[in-house]
Amino acid sequence: MAPPRRRGVAPRARAQSRRLTGGIVWISLFAVLLTGIVALNVAVLRTNMHVSRLDKQELQLRAENQALASDLSQAVSARRIESTAQKLGLVPAPSTDTSYLDLGQK
User: Fold this and answer.
1) Is 89 left (phi over 0), alpha (psi -120 to 50) or beta?
2) 3-class secondary structure, 94
3) Residue 48: what pLDDT?
4) What is the 3-state secondary structure (H, E, C) of 40-66?
5) CA 14 to chain centre
6) What is the spatial distance between Cα 9 and Cα 20, in angstroms, rounded to a whole number?
7) What are the mean pLDDT values of the chain's consecutive 10-residue runs (106 residues total)?
8) What is the pLDDT of residue 5?
């Protein structure tokens, strides 16, 4: 009597092949997910570094604005204007020369 013929792959080998294929799929899926998480963390880190640079720039600009405001208030101070006017030969008008205009009644 002839030995029975085997058809295709044995059920045990098929189950083992499915497990191996399933394992590879899960490992690949986890690898892709971990890669995505790492990429997301790198993007967040870069964004935080950019925000930090912008914060530092904001502080510098605020300090510069304060310095400019101080310079401006010093430039328009009455004492400085009076001093500059005297250097140009201008003198204050006497109070007796002050007159007012009547623009009419409302």
Assistant:
1) left
2) coil
3) 98
4) HHHHHHHHHHHHHHHHHHHHHHHHHHH
5) 56
6) 15
7) 59 70 90 97 98 98 96 86 91 83 78
8) 59
Residues 6+ apart with CB under 8 A from 74: 80
Place of tokens 């935080």: 48
Residue from 24, 20, 44 nearest 32 by CA:
24
The pLDDT score that the predictor gives to residue 106 is: 63
In one letter, which amino acid is 9? V
Task: Quote the CA–CA distance of 103 and 34 in Å, as a whole number.
Answer: 81
Tokens of 67: 């310095």
* Residue listed under structure tokens 């998480």: 37
Query: How much is the pLDDT for 6?
Result: 57
Determine the residue type at 32: V
User: Residue 8 gets which letter from DSSP?
Assistant: S
CA 97 to chain centre: 60
